[in-house]
Specification:
Layout lengths: L1 H5 L13 E15 L5 E9 L2 E7 L3 H5 L7 E11 L2 E11 L18 H13 L4 H11 L2 H9 L13 H19 L5 H10 L8 E3 L3 E3 L1 H5 L2 H12 L5 H12 L15 H22 L3
Length: 294
């Protein structure tokens, strides 16, 4: 572990023919092919933030294939060469990287905004919740160092808006800020309910994704999804919430993508409707800025 942490890995953009290749990379392609002599070999693609490198495994290809999957971070050794005019690598070893051998942040896009600053904004917004029951719930989340680390790291989507590490924190702060402003414009809204709902509405996404060579769905994300995960997390940390307040909050969270997820397919509160619109506003504007207008 310590040796891996001290290891210096050449970036793909810096590689030259004849150099030794060692280190951890993202594997974004894995194909079993057959050479002209009938022997199987693996064709893989290795990536880091600087580029991509095609590579091949000729020796014990089927054994090597069982040691990793496309989408894993992989530890490789081999040599860089030029093949048909392009840079490539012939690998002598490839396997799935062990947990802790490399940080997915080295291979995935990250938020351009300062995460410490975003966390400060989130803490400020949480302090604007004055209802003691909702405030205890928020403290149960935000006073948990492990959860805070997960929130700081999580993306918001796989390929849509805020699809990068820190994207969930950035989106949460944006929607919560919009919620605070909406309450100032519409004093009849319950500010404690709406602001709490805005802060926790996507917390289920801290469990929805698996980070490796890319942003993939976790098993929980694939089978359950972030709405149900978020509901379960509120139940775990909000056991002391009075039933009425818990129901009002969960109603907002379950409906933040639209009333289709709600019984009767309709909103039961203005706060739930507001959260749905504010979430769509930030997601839509951010998506247009990142990917263009639909």
């Amino acid at each position: 572990m310590e040796a891996a942490a001290q290891e210096t890995r050449r970036a793909i953009a810096e590689l030259r023919p004849g150099q030794e290749l060692r280190g951890v990379f993202a594997c974004t392609r894995k194909d079993r092919l057959v050479a002209r002599n009938g022997s199987p070999y693996l064709a893989v693609e290795l990536r880091d933030r600087t580029g991509a490198l095609p590579a091949r495994v000729f020796r014990d290809a089927d054994f090597a294939a069982g040691r990793f999957e496309r989408g894993d971070l992989v530890r490789v050794s081999g040599r860089v060469e030029r093949f048909r005019g392009e840079l490539s690598a012939e690998l002598t070893d490839i396997r799935r990287a062990e947990p802790g051998e490399a940080d997915p942040a080295e291979f995935l896009p990250v938020a351009y905004r300062d995460l410490d600053e975003l966390e400060g904004f989130l803490e400020h917004l949480a302090r604007e919740v004055h209802d003691p029951d909702y405030r205890r719930l928020l403290d149960a989340f935000l006073d948990d160092a492990q959860f805070r680390a997960e929130l700081r790291r999580a993306p918001c989507t796989r390929g849509g808006h805020h699809a990068y590490l820190g994207g969930l924190l950035e989106h949460t702060v944006a929607v919560s800020t919009l919620a605070q402003e909406a309450c100032a414009l519409h004093p009849r809204l319950n500010p404690d309910l709406l602001l709490t709902a805005a802060i926790v509405h996507d917390f289920g996404k801290t469990r929805e994704f698996r980070l490796g060579a890319g942003i993939e769905l976790s098993e929980q994300g694939r089978l359950i999804g972030h709405l149900a995960l978020g509901q379960a997390m509120i139940a775990e940390r909000g056991r002391a919430l009075p039933e009425g307040k818990a129901l009002a909050l969960v109603h907002c969270v379950l409906g933040h993508h639209g009333p289709e997820a709600l019984p009767g397919r309709r909103f039961g509160s203005a706060e739930a409707l507001a959260l749905y619109r504010l979430n769509a506003l930030d997601a839509g504007v951010k998506g247009a800025l990142e990917h263009g207008l639909p």
